[in-house]
Design a protein that fits this description.
The protein has one domain (7-52). The protein has helices spanning 7-16, 20-37, 49-52. The chain is mainly alpha-helical.
């Protein structure tokens, strides 16, 4: 059985397991790859201020 997680649940699990930085890096990398495929579109990525300082 598969269960969907909300974004807040996913971020909490990532934080508790020590994977939040890796997850953030992966999401930013994927967002940039997608943006390259669609240069006529804009993409917005939310970055928490505490992660931006790392």
């Amino acid at each position: 059985m598969h269960r969907y997680l909300s974004s807040s649940q996913l971020l909490l699990i990532a934080e508790e397991s020590g994977l939040s930085i890796a997850l953030g890096e992966w999401m930013l990398t994927q967002s940039c790859r997608i943006a390259q495929q669609w240069p006529e579109r804009f993409i917005a990525v939310s970055i928490h201020h505490t992660r931006a300082l790392l």
